[in-house]
TrEMBL record:
This is proline dehydrogenase. One of its GO terms (molecular function) is proline dehydrogenase activity. Pathway: Amino-acid degradation; L-proline degradation into L-glutamate; L-glutamate from L-proline: step 1/2. Gene3D superfamilies: 3.20.20.220. It catalyses: L-proline + a quinone = (S)-1-pyrroline-5-carboxylate + a quinol + H(+). Residues 42-291 form the Proline dehydrogenase domain. SUPFAM superfamilies: FAD-linked oxidoreductase. GO terms for biological process: L-proline catabolic process to L-glutamate. InterPro entries: FAD-linked_oxidoreductase-like (IPR029041), PRODH_bac_arc (IPR008219), Proline_DH_dom (IPR002872), Proline_oxidase (IPR015659). Its EC number is 1.5.5.2. Its cofactor is FAD.
Length: 324
């Protein structure tokens, strides 16, 4: 119920626009690294100084206009330039939908190709994030076509809650891969619904990719998963330069630093921009424990009031639909 609530909130365009108008006044600055490139790069440099790499996400939701998609591309190109000029230990994460996937496939492909080309010249990796199930095949198609054109600086994401996750992990064994549990509401026909099943599949694809794949990024805040990976890597003599742990900016800072100090490669997912609301809600949906972290690290009374009102609006909307 709680997960459905936050996914529903993340997809509410009205609330997304309202949250954007507030900027980061509600406390989201604790988990979003500013609204512009300068603020974000300051955060990246601070993390780099602590021995932590970064993957940078220019936030954006509900892009259905080509001009907006082009602006997003230009912003990402500016991030690539900033990484190169400042010699930051960072790479790019991008969402195909922000670059026009829901508008026109070929248009989106050319947009991403331009980013991949610029990033390739600057020796910067580009990760194509996975979104919901309807965008799964088009995103894999983008990855395949760019790879066929010779771009070796691209990778993508496997979401453990999909039944097909292990098959896809095997298919992309030669590609740098981020492995995650998944953060969207999906049908039981295509995705596991129970936490235990998702966790078991997550461990399954992590182990397979560590043993057979290229570089593996393991994105989790789950202590049990992290401890399992440590033991598995040690037992199978997997070198630490073959994988990294990833966590979200602003979450479990002490653990991020501790893992880096232990000698594990670590990468923080650094989102920035004014369009932070959908990202924020999906992080709450993705793992209920994130709510506790939010309460401790982010929410002030004003934030709680706004989230409460948003939740109430969503539930009232659901109830009104049922009454029709």
């Amino acid at each position: 119920m709680l997960r459905d609530l936050f996914i529903g909130l993340s997809e509410n365009q009205l609330l997304n626009r309202a949250a954007r108008n507030y900027g980061l006044q509600l406390g989201a600055q604790q988990v979003v690294a500013g609204t512009n490139i300068t603020e974000m790069m300051d955060s990246v440099k601070e993390l780099n100084q602590a021995g932590i790499a970064c993957t940078i996400d220019n936030l954006g939701e509900f892009v259905y206009d080509k001009s907006e998609a082009i602006r997003a591309k230009e912003q990402i190109l500016a991030v690539v330039k900033a990484i190169h000029e400042q010699q930051a230990d960072a790479h790019i994460s991008l969402k195909p939908s922000q670059l026009g996937l829901d508008i026109d496939y070929e248009f989106c492909r050319e947009q991403i190709k331009e980013i991949a080309e610029k990033a390739s010249r600057d020796d910067i990796f580009v990760n194509l994030d996975m979104e919901n199930y309807p965008r799964l095949e088009p995103t894999f198609r983008l990855v395949n076509e760019l790879s066929e054109e010779g771009y070796t600086n691209i990778g993508t994401v496997i979401q453990a809650y999909f039944h097909r996750a292990l098959k896809d992990t095997r298919a992309y064994r030669d590609m740098r891969m981020r492995l995650v549990k998944g953060a969207y509401k999906e049908s039981p026909a295509v995705a596991y619904q129970k936490k235990q099943e998702i966790d078991e599949n997550f461990i399954r694809i992590i182990e397979w990719h560590l043993l057979h794949g290229k570089f593996t990024s393991i994105a989790t805040h789950d202590d049990r998963i992290i401890d399992h990976v440590k033991r598995f890597a040690a037992e199978h003599d997997i070198e630490r330069d073959q994988f990294e742990f990833q966590m979200l900016y602003g979450f479990r800072k002490d653990l991020q630093l501790a893992l880096a100090k232990e000698g594990y490669r670590f990468c923080t997912y650094v989102p920035f921009g004014e369009d932070w609301y959908g990202y924020f809600m999906r992080r709450l949906a993705e793992r209920p424990q994130n709510m506790n972290l939010m309460v401790k690290q982010v929410f002030n009374k004003k934030t709680n009031t706004v989230i409460g009102l948003a939740a109430g609006a969503f539930l009232l909307g659901r109830l009104s639909k049922r009454g029709k």
